[in-house]
Amino acid sequence: MKFNVGNEVNKWLSRGLDRHVRLAVTGLSRAGKTAFITSLVNQLLHTSTNPNLPLFPPVRDGCIIGAKRVSQPDMCMARFGYDEGMTRLMSSPPTWPEPTSDVSQIRLAIKYYPQHGALKYVQSDATLYLDIIDYPGEWLLDLPMLAQTFEEWSAQQFQSMSERRRGLAGEWLNAAAQLDLNSTADENQLAQISQLYTDFLHQCKQDAGLHWVQPGRFVLPGELAGAPVLQFFPVDPQQLAAADEASSDSMLALLKQRFEYYKSHVIKPFYKQHFVKFDRQIILVDCLQPLNQGPESFNDMRQAFNYLVDSFRYGRNTLLKRLFSPSIDKVLFAATKADHVTPEQHLNLISLMQQMVHEAYQQASFEGITMDCMSLASISATSPGFVSHKGEQMPALRGTNLQGDACTLFPGEVPKRLPDANFWQQQGFDFQPFRPAVYPSDEPLPHIRMDKALQFLLGDKF
Q1: pTM of this structure
Q2: Which domains does the chain possess?
């Protein structure tokens, strides 16, 4: 049997060039996480036949040979519904992919010619394995609970109870106010009041367009639906003060027990299972819909976003670092749905995003983590153009609204900075949702700056 030393060395070197990247796709509800992953996978799968990524040098310069989907490493995790998402986008009429409801994963194998270091001179290709993890944005808002007692968490929830929230929470607040915290624990009564609290969170999220909902598993329980671990609720601090001597078999004791169990058996395992292994992270934010809905919705989104960013501070003494030791070295903040505003407003959208992440930027820079901000549209649903108005050419968007009607409109101006009271009094915009356009099945999905996002997140790996 012949043994070719040169071939064996090349095979060994090729195996050494194979790399792995785990990308966390993070974002609040309705930020477009599913659309982003669907587009990212679609763009990479087209790199060998019909690439549409001019700002991604590994593709533009011929470094990437091609990509394909391969079996995911974690067989206990749900498969990301890429095929289902593409079916919806290609249907007649096209519809958006279903939003995230549980943790899912997809793996791509990207074959490329190495471009850096001495090994690039080896006449062989290498493979980058990209694992993309998707999970509900609501679950991310639970991390701050790990540093709180039940009393602290309850106080925070009641401090954030705006007039609008109180209007939605009336039934739960009335039932909770009549609860005797010192009485012997009654699981049925706690289940009933917990359901009222869960209904209140659903109303905040679905009816009022609010983002700050905690605990996150209450609105997207997954396999925990109906479990006692999701049957607790915050208590008015005045009630807590009157029940501070409650016995170990009391209502209050059971509420505290479930709160602590939720922290240790739901929040911690989720982060330990996933965040320890992440290399790169993109945090998606929809700034436009909260702007549409007014100051309370926008400020609520900012509050939720700030809690989210605080959870992902990567410094040495942060809660995330102490508990999970993540290895993330690059974080991208992306303002989504850039196709819902005219092109000259994209800089304003980026500026607004930069205002929101200013403190996180400073912290990350100190810790040596690379961060960037950009606006993007994972799947572009509109085309920009101009319309005549009073003898002048005005920028406009053309697309199809959710009712199926073709429309041409100017949505308005995006504020460059965080809006103040004067802004809300003078606002003159209406950011409309659009239906996906009709796309050719053999071409990559149209996008805005997905190539730039890919370059930031993966470019150095080639």
Answers
A1: 0.88
A2: 16-140+273-381+438-461 (3.40.50.300), 153-270 (no CATH)
